[in-house]
Amino acid sequence: MKKITGVGACEGIAIGKLRVFDNTVSTIAPRTVQDIEAELSRFHDARQRAIDKIEELRGIALKKVGPEDSMIFRIHQVLLNDHAYIAQVESAITGGHVSAEYAVQQVGAQFASMFRQMESPYMRERSADVVDVSNRIISMLNGEHVRDLCEGEEPFILAAQDLLPSEAIRMDRSKVLAVVTCTGSKTSHAAILSRTMGIPTVVGTGMQLSMLNNGQTIVVDGASGVVIPDPDETILWEYERKRAAYENDRQRLEQLVAVPSRTLDGTAVSVCANISHPDDVDSVLENGGEGIGLFRTEYLYLDNDRFPTEKEQFLIYKSVLERMAGRRVVIRTLDLGADKPAPCLHMPHEENPAMGCRAIRICLRRPDIFITQVRALLRASAYGKLSVLIPMVTSLDEVRHVKQTFASCMAELREEKIPFAKVELGVMIETPSAAILSDQLANEVDFFSFGTNDLTQYVLAVDRMNASISELYDPAHPAVLRLMRIAAENAAKNGIWCAVCGESGSNTDLTDLYLSMGITEFSVAPSSILRVRDKICSIDLSKQEVSFV
Ligand code: PEP
Ligand code: MG
Predict the structure, then answer these.
(1) Which domains does the chain have, with CATH numbers?
(2) What pTM was estimated for this model as a whole?
(3) Is 401 among the catalytic positions?
């Protein structure tokens, strides 16, 4: 089979047997639910996500195969919006007190059988489409399959239409040699998770999953984005050699594990790690991370059907701080919403979730959830060097509100005689307004961390998840760089430090530019630490001529 090209999202070469995660759903057993409202909202949320996903696929198909062949996605969208179908699922949930997955599968089967009995061949064909869209909703509802897929001894290469963050977090990194997806983008959270785990990944290949078979041999090159199913002897030999060269380069970089990140002219920089799970600390230490620059705590909520308690969170944060042994750990307060909807939040459907109720907006509306996390963080601060980072800040008021919450939690802990240490507070500069207000924000906080994934999406009005416009998504766009420079200058004027924790931090073509802005911390996937350190150690800032547009 011929070579498929997608977007390389995590470097590394893998050769192995394929397992297709095709989201086809086996028979679902009925499960009784008590909270009918929550179940209805899970259904509507999953249905909407299925519609969004199909719209994305339709955009890609339109470009690749033209309007006629992409018509199938239109049909799927019509089915997903069908009033009779929606009403029947709702009444199955309400009347039968059953789970949304079960209701969708039952109603899907009834509709499919109805279509099969129709006279028109065209309508008969639609029965497969009803099953297809129902399965898509079910797979949106249910992120359990990847974990099931990882059962067994044999390592494999995972191919999927796309992965949800809740699915990607369940991958067993000792089994998954590489990931290949049909859609998806480099800065989607699923791709970020693969990268954090160091799993070679290619996204947005545009391939049809049905072209692939379980068990076939496949080559994946996560740097160039090349995927080759059924390689012949010559290709295998070529990629074995590339893999050996890649391993040699890794070994060269490993020499830098204990080397300080310092430019040739002596500027000290920290190369830290982004993590999503306490287990990721292993690879941070293996790769010589000088700290943790971003711990995305929302995965503690995503991998759960209830909120983690204060004690559960405290123990996790404490263990990460202890293992980092005095090195700085930046823990971000939860950034749920957008492409990370948490089942336990029961959020109402939003038309535009990236601009909806996410991150700090949720925390400020749900003090019960936020106070639990803030108390856990403060309690853990006694066990290491903790900094707390606030995501999606757009105003000064939000920061002041957060500071009040911290102050009242500290007062409570003092009264309860529970120890805590001084904690630095920082904001993510990931919205245009945060960058524009950075002179004022810099007065309120101890550090800035550039979230270039979101900053790029909001400045350029380019959805970071939308593979069909990925060529417009550019963290090096002059508009993004100008805003970063303004914020970095305001940080310097106020004597606070500045980090970059978005994915562009590992793009070594931008390292000198970021350094010349005054950024002193790069927080990247653990597997990228050594490459970024290598780059930093080769730069002489005194000889640098960086021009900003
Ligand atoms: C970012 O937006 O750059 C960032 C680091 O946050 P996330 O990718 O989790 O949205
Ligand atoms: Mg972000």
Answers:
(1) 4-23+147-232 (3.50.30.10), 36-142 (1.10.274.10), 266-543 (3.20.20.60)
(2) 0.79
(3) no
